[in-house]
Amino acid sequence: MSQSPAQEGSVHDITRTRSAPAVKQTERPHPLTPFVRGWIVFLAILFAVAREVVPDGNDQTGFSLSELSWVLPVAAFAVLFAGVAGFIGWYFTRFVIDEEELRVETGAIFKSSKKVPFERLQSVDIIQPLAARLFGLAELRLEAGAGDSAIKVRYLRRAKAAALREYLLTRAHGEKARVGDLGHLSASVLTDLTAADRPLVEVSPQRLIGSFLLSIEWFLSAGLGIMIVVVSSTFDMFALALPGLLPVVISTVSLISKRLVGMFNFTLAESPRGLRITRGLTNLTSQSVPIDRIQGVKISQPLLWKPVHWYRVDVDIVGYAHSDNEDNQSSATSVLLPVADESQVELAVGRVLPGFDLDGIELQRVPPRARWIRWFDFWTLRYGWNDRAITTEQGWISHERNIVPHAKTQSVRIAQGPLQRPLKLADVHIDTPKGPVHAVAQQLDARVARELALTQLDRARAARAAARSRVPIPAAGSELDADNDILAMFRIGRDQLLGSGGESEVFALDEQRVLRLYRRPHSASDRTVDQLRGLFASWERVEVGLEVPKIIEVGQRNGRFFTVDRRFSGQCMSPWLPHANLDERRKALTSFLDATERLHRLPSPVPGFARLVGDQAPRRFGSLGELAHSMLEEPVETSRAQLEQDLPTVGQVWSRLHADLAQRVVAPALVHGDVCPPNTYITLQGERWEVTGIGDFSPHTVNGDPMMDVTGAVAFLELEPYPEAASDSAWLEALAVQRGGPEVSHWIDVYRRFYGFYFSDSAGFDPALYAWCLRQLRR
Amino acid sequence: MDELFAPPAYEWKRLSPAYLSLRRLTASITAPIVFTIPAVLVGVLTGRWWISALLWGVAAAIAIIRLILAERSWRSWGYLEREDDLYLTHGVLFRRLIAVPYGRMQLVEVESGPLERAFGLATVSLKTASPETNATVPGLTPEEAARLRDRLTELGEAHLSGL
User: Fold this and answer.
1) What are the Cα distances from residue A328, in Å, to A325, A585, B35, B139?
2) Can you tell me the distance from the alpha carbon of A584 to that of A456, in angstroms, rounded to the nearest whole number?
3) Confidence at residue A183, expressed as pLDDT on a 0 to 100 scale
4) Given an 8 Å threshold on Cβ–Cβ distance, is B95 in contact with A415?
5) Residue B2 in domain
6) Which of A16, A400, A492, A688 is the most core-located residue (most Cβ within 10 A)?
7) Contact: B128, A408; criterion CB under 8 Å
8) Half-sphere exposure of A478 (CA within 13 A, CB side)
9) Closest by alpha carbon to A1, among A567, A653, A544?
10) What domain range is B56 assigned to?
11) What is the tens place of the pLDDT at every residue in A697-718?
12) How far apart are alpha carbons A615 and A523 in whole angstroms?
């Protein structure tokens, strides 16, 4: 890519349209949409025509043309009308994706436009109604904010719908992406899980049917139906009972459709963005369960499930406006597991409430005098809490256990009715957002109730404060287990390892993405990742003729942080150098120096000298000297004794470095801090190898003196393990001096000493680097 | 007031005395108005005015009972702002104590209907993500309502935490 100043404007524009998201992308529904939406109408017309045309057995006359003569025009008109209406609806429908929102524009005469700003997007579900499924189409349903109805994008090709969902979810997490970036994830006609999803619990059809036949609702409706039939036929009034039977039959059919057809093939899977549910026999629904939006969990067990140890798990999800409708067939559901055994419940609850021990809570009983009010179930009432959640239990016809994490407590109420007052009993309600979970500690002794309510407020406050400071969950199991767990989640093995550094290991995911696994479960990682992510996002729109990293996704599991990053094109420079001949190397190194200089054009989020990434960041400094001092403080503290031993004059070197830095006059610019061949990517362009990307921005990245990176490019080259490394480094230094003037030589010398101190804490883990540091300090 | 519904500290802040007058007014006129329409209808259509008299009698009884209870109901209300939560209590037969953490408030509203305005009163209600919270403080003077709203909004921002 040419970088002459005159051309820069045009280059800038072209690359922007190529790499940035299209400012406005318009999609049409699939042309089959009107047909899929109106298939019932078509079916009805077809049926009517067939009834007229096809003679049935009793009809002796058969069909005659005269009968057909009026049926056909009517049918044709109906078809035409429906077709035109469908076409008009289709023609005027557009899905527009722009920088901030997704809009669904409909209507020929009365235009309507529904908008979903990306940041308000709460979940994106894919629904495939039977008719759409037959044609390979799918509907996207977007939930945005509490109270709003879902916005439907229908219908798109299944692959496009899946790609769009990934795109929208990426945008909802505040990142930028192009629709095409994520196009390789596709849903299938049967399971609708994408490649990155790992099934946690699959409900077998046998168990689903078994659980249905043992459910109370089934017994009630079936029992009622049988009773009506039996009673009416014994009194020989069957015909009279029919109107009474009809609603029973309808409710039974709808129950079957909700509980069996809708929940068929129910799979709870783990995806990189939380849990995902897919279910359905005819209508296939794929729904994401955003874990941080789960407000409470209900585990219930109807009486007849007790002998087989089955449970049902529901959750409150904030923002799912219609979540009270627990069995809704095709839209979002609050059912986490329709039926599951104990170990599966434990697994699912473990995912939803990480670190929560279901059996670890000591449950309290209510005083015996509660029997005067709750004579039918006083012995089942329980409540208890631990440091994470409060739980209440009640009922025996259907035993229910409600769990609400303290952090999700909305408000606390004490209620006392007129019957409870003389008995000195009261209820404590833990209010949660709309949904199936209702945690009420019932019939407590008044004093206990008051204490529970007031202490619950303290627990909720403490939990909220903890959630704000984002304390990572302690690692479970060994580090290696955690690693393998994450790798398994992405369906890759250790053989995909691309490289490793001091902070992280990098694995290949596919052509476009890599998985970066941060080493220690230390709390600084998420901060670092956040800062880097912000930094990279701010570079998204800036084109400096160089690939810089992009974080597509961030996750945490068992205390280990990982990110999915864009994969650099080209290959790593470090292993390439030993195989290249002198001429190739010199050309590549020239381009390396160009790239280093281009880095400084990346914008910094803060003005002035500053540290941008790490524990102390963002921290600003008044001068270059203060910044350098802050960077050197920590490593030198570690290495001081060793340095004084190896280099008695180190004190002089230290003060000389500070004196030199005090002389430096420079405008602060972005500094990578660790520009070296292992962090550099090169691509063969025509005849020459050119540097096309620089990665591995880290806590070394600061807003400082651009000369730091020039020095890094020159000096770190010496560390490369190939024979000509030293001579190449000298040549590159000469080139830098030739470009920047004689004083560059002096500043490279100064920053060599700076890096000598900066990496001097490496004696323990990288003796070669430490030896290099000593060489710099002795210069 | 028994211990269960005692304030967590200090004393409950009570509603404005004007609210008691408002409650007495509504208590004494609502039932008679509601019962008058069927009473007149029955009287005019059937001529059996003794049924109408009976209905008026019932209306008067309801009004008297509500008048007697009005003061107890008014006295049962109380609210209190503490460091982290707003406490609220009310109810004569069914008694409630509601505690809403400031960090959970999503919306604070001040409303004043025509009748309330006539008595110089306003209602402050606050909403959380839970529809069950239902924390409403009626019968405040407009100044107190505005103060409470501003204070709650301010505290809400200071304590705000995500869902």
Assistant:
1) 6, 65, 43, 42
2) 70
3) 42
4) yes
5) no
6) A400
7) no
8) 3
9) A544
10) 17-73
11) 888 888 888 899 999 999 988 8
12) 9
| DSSP reduced 3-state for A185 | coil
Name the pLDDT band for B90 (thresholds 50, 70, 90).
very high
Residues B66 and B95 in one domain: no
In a domain, A259, yes or no: no
**B7 inside domain:** no
Same domain, B62 and B89: no
Give the model confidence (pLDDT) of A192-251 as tens digits: 555 557 788 889 999 999 999 998 888 888 888 888 888 888 887 777 777 778 888 888
> Is residue A169 within a helix (H) or strand (E), and if so which, with residue range?
helix A158-172
- Is B132 found in the same domain as B108? yes
**Same structural domain for residues B62 and B97?**
no
CB A572 within 8 A of CB A714: no
Give residue A252's pLDDT.
87
How far is the C-alpha of A610 from the C-alpha of A613, rounded, in Å? 9
Return d(Cα A722, Cα A706) in angstroms, integer.
27
What is chain A's percent helix, strand, coil content, to nearest 5?
45, 25, 30
Structure tokens at A149: 């109805």
Q: Identify whether residues B99 and B58 lie together within a single domain.
A: no
Q: Does B1 map to a domain?
A: no
- Residues belonging to chain B with any Cβ–Cβ distance to chain A shorter than 8 Å: 2-5, 8, 84-85, 93-101, 103-104, 128-133, 135, 161-163
What's the rounded mean pLDDT across residues A90-105?
83
CB A536 within 8 A of CB A491: no
User: Has residue A273 been placed in a domain?
Assistant: no
What is the pLDDT at residue A330? 44
- Looking at residue A760, the DSSP 8-state letter turns out to be G
Contact at 8 Å (CB) between A564 and A273?
no
Among chain A residues, the shortest Cα distance to B6 is held by: A450
Same domain assignment for residues B122 and B151? yes
Rg, chain B, Cα only: 20
Q: With 60 as the cut, is the pLDDT of residue A687 above it? A: yes
* Sign of the dihedral defined by the CA atoms of residues B21, B27, B32, B37, in that order: positive
* DSSP H or E run through A14: helix A5-19
Whether A518 and A589 map to the same domain: the answer is no
- Provide the β-strand partners of residue A124: A142
Q: What is the DSSP string of A432-497?
A: -SSSS--EEEEEEEHHHHHHHHHHHHHHHHHHHHHHHTTPPPPPPS-HHHHHHHHHHHTT--GGGE
| Dihedral, CA of residue A243, residue A246, residue A248 and residue A251, to nearest 10 | -140
Total domains, chain B: 2
Q: Report the distance separating Cα A489 and Cα A494, nearest Å.
A: 13
The answer to whether A293 contacts chain B (CB < 8 Å) is yes
A295 touches chain B (CB under 8 A): yes
b vs e for B136-155, b when ≥16 Cβ sit within 10 Å of the residue's Cβ? Answer: ebbbbbeebbeebbeebeeb
User: A166: which 2 tokens?
Assistant: 């990934």
Mutate which of B79, B97, B126 to disrupt the A interface (most A C-beta within 10 Å)?
A: B97
Q: Determine which of A27-41, A201-215, A562-576 has the lowest per-residue pLDDT on average.
A: A27-41
Under DSSP, the state recorded for A405 is E
- Tokens 């994008």: give the residue: A153
pTM above 0.95, yes or no: no
Let me know: does B41 contact B49? Beta carbons within 8 Å. no
Domain membership flag for residue B95: yes
Q: Looking at the structure, tell me whether residues A72 and A36 fall in a common domain.
A: yes
Amino acid at A689: W
> Which segment, A7-21, A81-95, A298-312, is predicted with the most confidence on average?
A298-312
Q: Which of A657, A615, A683 is nearest to A747 (CA)?
A: A657
- For helices A39-53 and A65-91, the axis angle rounded to 10 degrees is 170
